[in-house]
Write a structure and sequence with these properties.
TIM Barrel, alpha/beta
Length: 125
């Protein structure tokens, strides 16, 4: 079992990484919610979503993929909001491991649109 610590309104992604590292356990890792990070970027001056991924590095085990407009936690399918998905997926591709990716959408009916967008953009196959 792995416990992942998720961002909510984090301003500095390093704080969660340092917290996870403080346990000194392979069973504690990080999770990033892309919509939460995007909201924090716009509302609190946090860095963009891809910076959260890069800072988490090898500690990143889990990513909630959801789009937003920076004003609320929308849980929209990727492509509907303003998250820079190319930067996010480039940061994920640069990691030494492959974190678990989960579409976390408000409506299950949006799954096909999310997958179509990710495939069309060359981000998923």
């Amino acid at each position: 079992m792995t416990l992942v610590i998720e961002n909510i309104e984090d301003i500095d992604p390093a704080h969660r990484r340092l917290l996870a590292q403080s346990f000194g356990s392979d069973a504690v890792r990080l999770s990033i919610d892309t919509g939460h990070a995007h909201y924090a970027h716009h509302a609190t001056g946090a860095p963009p979503v891809d910076y959260f991924v890069t800072d988490a590095g090898a500690w990143l085990a889990h990513v909630h993929l959801q789009d937003a407009d920076g004003f609320a936690d929308r849980h929209w399918p990727p492509g509907r909001g303003t998250v820079n998905w190319h930067a996010v997926f480039a940061a994920i591709a640069a990691l030494p491991q492959r974190p678990h990716l989960v579409l976390e959408l408000r409506h299950a009916a949006d799954i096909p649109a999310a997958m179509t967008y990710l495939e069309r953009e060359g981000l998923a196959c």
